[in-house]
Amino acid sequence: MPLTDRDRAILDFERTWWSQPGSKAAAIQSQIGVSPARYYQILAGLISSAEAAAYDPLVVRRLRKLQRNRRRARIEGGRIAQPPGR
User: Fold this and answer.
1) Helices in the chain by DSSP H: which ranges?
2) Residue 86: inside a domain, yes or no?
3) Does 17 reside within a domain?
Protein backbone atom coordinates (compact mmCIF):
# COMPACT_ATOMS: atom_id res chain seq x y z
CA MET A 1 0.00 0.00 0.00
CA PRO A 2 1.52 3.37 -0.97
CA LEU A 3 2.42 5.91 1.68
CA THR A 4 -0.08 8.65 2.39
CA ASP A 5 0.82 12.31 2.73
CA ARG A 6 0.48 11.90 6.53
CA ASP A 7 2.84 8.89 6.48
CA ARG A 8 5.47 10.90 4.61
CA ALA A 9 4.95 13.86 6.96
CA ILE A 10 5.56 11.58 9.95
CA LEU A 11 8.77 10.17 8.48
CA ASP A 12 9.94 13.67 7.54
CA PHE A 13 9.14 14.87 11.07
CA GLU A 14 11.15 12.00 12.62
CA ARG A 15 14.13 13.03 10.53
CA THR A 16 14.19 16.60 11.85
CA TRP A 17 12.13 17.00 15.04
CA TRP A 18 15.12 17.61 17.34
CA SER A 19 16.11 20.73 15.43
CA GLN A 20 12.80 22.41 16.23
CA PRO A 21 12.13 24.49 19.35
CA GLY A 22 9.77 23.22 22.04
CA SER A 23 8.75 19.75 23.04
CA LYS A 24 8.33 16.90 20.61
CA ALA A 25 4.79 16.27 21.89
CA ALA A 26 3.74 19.85 21.12
CA ALA A 27 5.31 19.66 17.67
CA ILE A 28 3.52 16.38 16.94
CA GLN A 29 0.21 17.93 17.90
CA SER A 30 0.71 21.12 15.87
CA GLN A 31 2.45 19.72 12.77
CA ILE A 32 0.93 16.27 12.39
CA GLY A 33 -2.42 16.99 14.01
CA VAL A 34 -2.69 13.85 16.15
CA SER A 35 -2.02 13.06 19.79
CA PRO A 36 1.47 11.81 20.66
CA ALA A 37 0.02 8.38 21.58
CA ARG A 38 -1.64 8.04 18.17
CA TYR A 39 1.50 9.32 16.46
CA TYR A 40 3.60 6.56 17.99
CA GLN A 41 1.00 3.93 17.04
CA ILE A 42 1.11 5.11 13.43
CA LEU A 43 4.91 5.30 13.48
CA ALA A 44 5.23 1.75 14.80
CA GLY A 45 3.15 0.49 11.89
CA LEU A 46 5.02 2.62 9.41
CA ILE A 47 8.50 1.38 10.26
CA SER A 48 7.45 -2.18 9.48
CA SER A 49 6.45 -1.28 5.91
CA ALA A 50 8.67 -1.69 2.88
CA GLU A 51 7.27 1.53 1.43
CA ALA A 52 8.50 3.54 4.42
CA ALA A 53 11.92 1.89 4.19
CA ALA A 54 12.11 2.82 0.51
CA TYR A 55 11.02 6.42 1.21
CA ASP A 56 13.52 7.09 4.02
CA PRO A 57 15.80 4.12 4.68
CA LEU A 58 18.02 5.87 7.24
CA VAL A 59 15.16 6.99 9.49
CA VAL A 60 13.42 3.61 9.26
CA ARG A 61 16.61 1.69 10.07
CA ARG A 62 17.31 3.98 13.04
CA LEU A 63 13.79 3.56 14.39
CA ARG A 64 13.82 -0.22 13.87
CA LYS A 65 17.10 -0.42 15.77
CA LEU A 66 15.67 1.62 18.66
CA GLN A 67 12.60 -0.62 18.68
CA ARG A 68 14.75 -3.79 18.81
CA ASN A 69 16.91 -2.36 21.60
CA ARG A 70 13.89 -1.40 23.69
CA ARG A 71 12.29 -4.80 23.16
CA ARG A 72 15.54 -6.55 24.10
CA ALA A 73 15.88 -4.41 27.25
CA ARG A 74 12.31 -5.26 28.31
CA ILE A 75 12.89 -8.98 27.77
CA GLU A 76 16.22 -9.00 29.57
CA GLY A 77 14.82 -6.82 32.32
CA GLY A 78 12.01 -9.32 32.87
CA ARG A 79 14.47 -12.19 33.26
CA ILE A 80 16.56 -10.27 35.79
CA ALA A 81 13.53 -9.18 37.78
CA GLN A 82 12.26 -12.74 38.32
CA PRO A 83 13.11 -14.32 41.66
CA PRO A 84 15.60 -17.22 41.61
CA GLY A 85 14.15 -20.68 41.24
CA ARG A 86 11.37 -19.76 38.84
Assistant:
1) 5-16, 24-27, 36-46, 50-55, 57-81
2) no
3) yes
Domain that holds residue 28: 5-81
The length of the chain is 86
Q: Are 61 and 51 in contact (CB under 8 A)?
A: no
In whole angstroms, what is the distance from residue 9 CA to residue 32 CA? 7
Burial of 3 per CB tally in 10 Å (0-12, 13-18, 19+)? middle
Judge whether 71 lies within some domain.
Answer: yes
Q: Which residues contact 15 (CB under 8 A, 6 or more apart)?
A: 56, 58, 59
- Domain annotation covers residue 56: yes
Q: Is the separation of the CB atoms in 52 and 46 below 8 Å?
A: yes
pLDDT for 16-71, tens place per residue? 988 888 899 999 999 999 999 999 999 999 999 999 999 999 999 999 999 999 88
